[in-house]
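Lecture 7 notes: from sequence to structure.
We start with the chain below.
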Amino acid sequence: TSYIPFEPGWNLVSVPVGVSDMSISAVFPDATSNAFGFNGTYQMVDMLENTKGYWLKFDNAGSEEVIGTVLSGNVYVSEGWNLIGPFEDPVPHHVIASNPPNLVESNYFGFDAGYFAEDTLKTGKGYWVKCASDGLLFFKLSEKAGAPSPLYPETASRLTITDAEGSRSVLYVMNGSAGKDYPMPPAPPEGVFDARFAGDLQVADLSSGLNEILLSGAKFPVRISTEDKNLRLSGAGLSMNLTPEEPVVISENISSLTVNTVEIPTAFALHNNYPNPFNPATIISFSLPVSSKISVEVYDMLGQRISLVNNETFEAGVHKVSFDGEGFASGIYFYSIKAEGADGSEFSSVKKMMLLK
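Predicted structure tokens for the same chain:
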């Protein structure tokens, strides 16, 4: 006897034991949708099969009691993505062997209000796996299996995206190549939450430019958090810093955003303008260790303010503003910054520049 748990909404399920009636109504009487398997594309099925995984929808949380004969053996897979189901016993991912060897090209992905990489395939659940060619997976292996390998690069930083209904996806970012791709499975049914990097990847090398996150089926607001990396998120008119201390909440309905590494300064600073001398425009840059309300002003040699370059709030980071000297005479000018940090800190500084026409 196997007990197969399910949650409200869409689930990935499988049939772990042999039963005489493999119809959906017999095995999953609480299901409220058709069953969808996968064979290159999603296909609606009437009869279920052992070793196959399926999308099924339920209205409420619960479990199905399935009585049948114990099965064991091999799982046949095809080149590309496969939706599979284990047998009655849970199987750690690292003990699964294959013929031909090195057949598996991805993590094993389960679904629980969002895709996640599974370290142990559980009874009655369905799992995605990508294979290099047609072949066999062996779910029974001797004790010769080595230690489990990490599911993700140890140098990657975790990025957790959670929508208003609690659906969640975990992505990873790193500066530099992971040495291999970390592909994600085909998208879930329409309307189901999903987040992934462009190219259907779960791990992004930010130095490669492949840093666009695609969102679908999300209920806003969406909360994004990170554990150990300072990042900048932008897209659809948004631009904000994401730090381990300050998660980001996005209220606008967006379908994509980009993520980049940003180094958060450790102290306030006003930098030398560039170019200097200038004609007629120059760039003034400054560093903020915390979100701050700043005022950048320009004065002449008599101490009279001739321009308010900027007066607004900036996120922590390095920022640039432009001063246009058109209409002003050649000579020495001074530019200043006053900053009021969100944490109560204050900063001011003055520097000199030359307008040369």
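Points to note: The longest helix spans residues 24-27. The mean pLDDT is 92.
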